[in-house]
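Hello forum,

I keep getting stuck at the same step: I have a sequence, I want structure tokens, and every attempt I make locally crashes halfway through. Rather than fight my setup again tonight, could one of you with a working pipeline run this one for me? It's a single chain of 481 residues.
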Amino acid sequence: MDLNHDACYSAIQVRDARYDGRFFTAVKTTGIYCRPVCPARTPLSKNVTFYATAAAAQEAGYHPCLRCRPETAPELGPGRELPDSVSRALQLIELGALDEEGMDALARRLGVGERQLRRQFRQHLGASPVAVAQTRRVLLAKQLIHETRLPMAEVAFASGFGSIRRFNEIFHRLFGRAPGELRRSEKPEVPAGREGEIELLLRYRPPYDWEAMLGFLRLRAIPGVERVTDDAYARTLCLDGHQGTVTLRPGPGNALRAVVRFPRLQALPAIIARLRRVFDLASDPVAIAAQFSRDPVMTALIQARPGLRVPGAWDGFELSMRAVLGQQITVAAAVRLAGRLVAAHGEPMARPDGELTRVFPRPEAVAAAELASLGMPRSRAATLSAVAAAAVADKHLFDAGNGLAESVQRLRAIRGVGEWTAQYIALRQLREPDAFPSADIGLIRALERLESRAYTPAQLLARAEAWRPWRAYAAQHLWTA
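Reply #2:
Ran it on my machine without issues. Output:
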């Protein structure tokens, strides 16, 4: 990303919040990097340089500012100017790809060479993939130090460090002091406990239509797995055999307050990444609105709901089951079927939380089950079984490793999965901003009402050309309308 020095300097002089998270200011005389909104005195122009990412600033030898706290900047999703392989690599890194496997495996999943991927990261982000992953760990650790009372050992593991020694070494190198010395409060430490309870804030770029997000999730909440109240969303989760729960509600400022209860602290980065995807916290609604400004229908819808987001999915397999169950029936009917599936094949929670009593079934359990007895057509039961078998055979089936066309084609190769189902999975799970299920009757009827004319799926698809590359957001606005 090319950053014009004079333009960036003008932004930091007035502390323009529109640029918060879009670039970082590195101060040569102090060795720190800051957000554009940092309240400290603006340094001289000759003493600063600008980086598109925190990872680039950190790899260049600068350390995060303790005053403006770069870890609290709203994190934006990959920009349109990035190569497809870099955008998808960033998504996979956020979900922990480099923690589980090395660079070779990441490059293979993306279908590119390791050298090419490193070169693209260096060119477009100014940092290597490993540096991006390490910066994420450092900034999460710094957030946990400031926002929680966790002991430093628990901060280390909860932020993704493999050892306390490595955690201490990196903080000494960056800040010249022990991690614990960054915590200014003298209140006693509070361990996460047996349930691993951690509370922290997840920032976003305003505006954010929390009411619409909660309404979407409320209509689709699966009994036993999800709970939606007037101002909060909660659900069960199971990762690597460990069970837990998460709860989100509005927090102070432009943030959601998350309470994570999970016994394995090392899973926190992956849980945060999933929550950010479910609640679409990395999108920039102002930039998306600008793309739609020439379309009168979209302009009117955005003016009515300016902070609307595209709800994501907690888990790819769970979303695929929802999508198949929802084929050609109402949302309410699909939820009832999902509840029966969970009651019959979901594992019970060892420590239930009110009506949160079960976790969603695993692919292995669904693949081995007789599903027609749950009250659905045999053809749909066969499709559920086929998707489950495919998920068992390929653990990366629902990862964002391929482009939209390739992902849809791969999903459609599964027996019973059509274009609508594949596009819906791409939209909510793969986070494809241009996915568009043009055969969806809800989209067709919404546009017919708005434009007072009839549409076929083919005509809707042609009409949606004007909404590229954000057709998923256009679909969400139509669904909401």
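The mean pLDDT is 94. If your local run keeps crashing, start a new thread with the error log.
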